[in-house]
Amino acid sequence: MNDSSWGAPQGAGYWGTPEMRAAPAGPAHDVHGAQQTRPMPIVPDVPDAGRDADREPQSRDERNGDAARISGPLFRDEMPQEPMSTPPPSPPRKKRAGRDLRAAIGVGVGLGAVIGVSLFIVKAVFIGVIVIAVVVGLWELTSRLQERKGIKAPLIPLAVGGAAMVVAGYARGPEGAWVAMALTALAVLVWRMTEPPEGYLKDVTAGVFAAFYVPFLATFVALLLTADDGSWRVLTFLVLTVVSDTGAYAVGWRFGKHKLAPRISPGKTREGLLGAVGFAMVAGALCMEFLIDGGAWWQGLLLGLAVAASATLGDLGESMIKRDLGIKDMGTLLPGHGGIMDRLDSLLPTAPVVWLLLVLFVGSG
């Protein structure tokens, strides 16, 4: 309500009927001259012209007193009130990303620089980068399992066996990776025997799962590197996965309305999945045509489609794990991204898919 509705009267002739308000102001029609003989609500009335004419003009103090009485609480209750003006609706807020985009972009550029330098200068250095990522990922996964579920998957045999898997895959191919995987599982079973038997089954089950989920799937990145154009194959794998994630994020953030899997990951939409497929197929056609020896653009379309599917499933898979654990991120090592496992979620299941399709399309050499 406006302030003027609660203030003093605005002048002579302000109260009363329209005819009264139209009357000229003056001594004969001054509403402030009306005298009160007993306390009662002040009701505007037509002033007595003769009585007001015989009355002495009011002093300034009397006029102020009358004005104060007229504006008292009894009269305010009878005053016509103006409708309260409603504030204009605030403009709708723009959608905002859930993470610190500056930090995420900075970390992403830094990781990309490390990968690019190690990938195209010395392949052995890139194998070391894979091993570091595997060990840190295993540490995050086993730590969250113990914190949230009380599951004690043995980290030491997992870390040693995981590093051995990646190196064996690069040096001996798929056979070396499988042998290292079997030995790692056996080491987990034996290592856990040094502790009390309570929880043995769930601990070793989680340990074997961790060995397969992180280092074994990461070994396929090392297998990609063994080809003559291995650096370009790894780059194609990374580019397609990143482009798929970026397309899903951009299209889903802008146009997403229909949830893809609300019980697993409420933020993912069907529109985002279509964005991932479209972006990845275009990038796949370009990569197969210009980066891979003997590749064709139509093969890149199929490759991009497969990458979009596997990356989305991998993301949903880790979302299921995190939802079961009751956490948002696996770690806090990478600002704007979470932990290492939060970046490997779509890469790990995509690596064997890309390796297999490239072997079928252009061979393993």
Automatic annotation (TrEMBL):
Reactions the enzyme catalyzes: a 1,2-diacyl-sn-glycero-3-phosphate + CTP + H(+) = a CDP-1,2-diacyl-sn-glycerol + diphosphate
Biased composition (Basic and acidic residues): 48-66
Pathway: Phospholipid metabolism; CDP-diacylglycerol biosynthesis; CDP-diacylglycerol from sn-glycerol 3-phosphate: step 3/3; Lipid metabolism
Protein's cellular compartments: Cell membrane
Enzyme Commission number: 2.7.7.41
Annotated region described as Disordered, given as residue ranges: 1-98
UniProt KW keywords: Cell membrane, Lipid biosynthesis, Lipid metabolism, Membrane, Nucleotidyltransferase, Phospholipid biosynthesis, Phospholipid metabolism, Transferase, Transmembrane, Transmembrane helix
Major enzyme class: transferase
GO molecular function: phosphatidate cytidylyltransferase activity
Family: Belongs to the CDS family.
The protein's name in its UniProt record: Phosphatidate cytidylyltransferase
